[in-house]
Specification:
There is one protein chain. The longest helix has 17 residues, at 2-18. The chain is of the alpha+beta class. It has 6 helices and 20 strands. The chain starts with a helix and ends with a helix. The radius of gyration is 23 Å and the shape is globular. The strands form 8 sheets. It has a 5-stranded mixed beta barrel with strand order 15-16-18-19-20. A 3-stranded mixed β-sheet has the order 3-9-7. It folds into 3 domains: 2-91, eubacterium ventriosum atcc fold (Sandwich); 105-178, Alpha-Beta Complex (Type Iii Antifreeze Protein Isoform Hplc 12); 181-256, SH3 type barrels (Roll), CATH 2.30.30.
């Protein structure tokens, strides 16, 4: 019995080492709603037909760690060399019910009784909840319920926070969501001025709350002057030439709701 237990332990320990390396496809997609390892990875071999999820809308989002675990169960090793956080698998071209392109969306919505796929909330959310991949799902609704400003990809809203309580089944709208605050009023903030390879920093106190990409006035306690900066992370902001780039990096979908 001890020998069998030891052998089993060795097999488990050797599992990752025996896993075959695979490469993430440039644009993962499936054609029938059944997402397989072969849809996601090149060189999946005999595991290519292993189904790892069912896609119910135009796309499905995997956390990178989740995808690594699913691959490893079938003896595949994905090292995630680019350090991706999430992977989106979209509907393939062979499926006629693909989400409408921007040019055809108006025609699709205008037909009486027509249905369209929209991103909806999969569960009730409280104000301040941060949207996770499992919190949104594509749902077919009557065209009059679809919003022209709705997201075209789940990746646009994952990581945003709810402005208010949201009900399961409601279409996702920009007015519902905001980028999570990374700086609160009165937080200590390090402001960096970066130009031509030179970086100068000063520490001050935020005079209002801000999300990534939001303006945040920072009071320099030493000089008593207020620095107009852009929030870049928890307790961090930039000013000067880097500020415009930092503002551009904020979530564009969240900015629509402001």
């Amino acid at each position: 019995m001890k020998a069998l237990t030891l052998a089993f332990s060795l097999i488990l320990a050797a599992g990752p080492a025996l896993a075959g390396p695979v490469t993430l496809k440039t644009n993962p997609s499936d054609d029938d709603g059944r997402v397989t390892l072969g849809d996601v990875f090149d060189d999946a071999g005999s595991a290519a037909d292993v189904v790892i999820a069912t896609r119910t809308g135009p796309s499905i989002v995997f956390e990178a760690g989740q995808l690594q675990g699913l691959a490893l169960r079938s003896g595949l090793q994905w090292s995630n060399p680019r350090g991706l956080r999430r992977v989106v698998v979209r509907q393939g071209a062979a499926t006629p019910s693909a989400s409408p392109a921007a040019g055809s969306a108006t025609a699709s919505i205008s037909r009486p009784g027509a249905t369209v796929d929209v991103l909806t909330y999969a569960r009730n959310l409280s104000a301040g909840d941060v949207i996770q991949p499992e919190d949104v799902v594509w749902t077919a609704v009557q065209s009059h319920q679809a919003m022209a400003s709705g997201p075209h990809d789940a990746e646009q809203v994952i990581g945003l926070s709810a402005r208010r309580a949201l009900r399961a089944g409601s279409p996702v709208a920009a007015r519902d969501l905001a980028s999570p605050q990374v700086i609160a009023r009165n937080d200590t903030v390090e402001v960096a001025f970066i130009s031509g390879g030179v970086k100068l920093t000063v520490t001050g106190r935020a005079t209002r709350s801000a999300a990534v990409g939001d303006p945040v006035p920072v009071l320099n306690l030493a000089s008593g002057k207020t620095i107009e900066a852009i929030a870049t992370g928890p307790g961090l902001a930039v000013t000067g030439p880097a500020a415009q780039a930092a503002r551009s990096n904020s979530n564009s979908f969240a900015r629509q709701g402001r």
